[in-house]
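Input sequence (378 aa), recorded before submission:
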Amino acid sequence: MNMNRIMNKKIGIIILVILIVLYFVIHIMKPKSPAFPLPKVVVQQPQWKMVTEYVIQTGTLVAYNSVDLVARVEGYLDSVEFVDGTFVKKGTELFVIQPEPYMEQLKAAQAEVDVQKALYAYAKSEYGRQQRMYKQNATSLDNVEKWLAKTQETSAEIAKATANEQVAAINYGYTHIQAPFDGRIGRHLVDPGNLVGNGVATDLATIQQINPIYAYFNLNELDLIKLRIQASARGFKPSDLNRISAYLKLQNETTFKHAGRMDFVNTGLNASTGTLEFRAIFNNDDFTLLPGLFVQVRIPVMQPEKKLTLPDTAILYDQVGAYVLVVDANDIVQLKRIEIGSVDDVGVRAITKGLDEKDRVIVSGLQFATPHNKVELT
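Predicted structure, token format:
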């Protein structure tokens, strides 16, 4: 029994030693976790600047003038006098449609005018002679009235023949199709040798005037109200629409470098979209603006005002709206909801509500900043 007690005592001591060693290994010798460095961010306080409020909408470029050139007389297409896709001047001959038959018709009509003028001259002369003879009792009143009627008849025939001559001249003019304005012409749709104008007006080509050029776009009801209020404040009348500036940029441009003016506003809102159609006109001397391109159109809706601004890259968005991350006095990140205005060409955004000029807004390192966590300022 004593031996068992001694053995149990020894086993207990061994177990106790093992437990002490394990505790020491786990709690005393456990290496400490390394401390992670705080995220580094750059902050900036909002700056006061003079800012113009704009509305920006997507628009479509449309040619100032566009004409489908058609064959208005029947005949074989003699020639195409232009290179497809080139710029042509007003009055440049573009197509020739078998002019010979129409020239002969014009000559015949001119000859008929000459015939009727000769007949009129004879009738007028004879009428005068009959009047003189009647005074001498050498002819009857019936003859006098007959030649008066003949004079009136031939005068009417002259008018008829002259009208036919003008129609023939017009038809002959249709055989030489000219550019109605300076513009760019597309490809020809009919090759020489084909019969055109055979009962229908055959399409030959399309020419477009693209300098100046139109941009069509739509404004929603809220933006429309802003624009009307600003126009009223500046004393503009409906007839002063062209005094409102408009600016445009292409999809690959970073600034609104194309300046123009408003040109047209539709009569009422589209009931299905709640928008109103506008049109602006832009100079296009270098022909960089082409019909059909999608563009961004910017319209100022108020006079420049002093507002707080931030780099546009510092503003974040979620389903609720726009917000920024600010650093408080304890260097803890906080989320602040804001209302934003327009952005200028250098990427500075106006802040209309939600910020104070003393706020320290994170402008760099946003990907490392998390609300309610501490950061290090650099």
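Checked by second reader. The chain has a mean pLDDT of 88.
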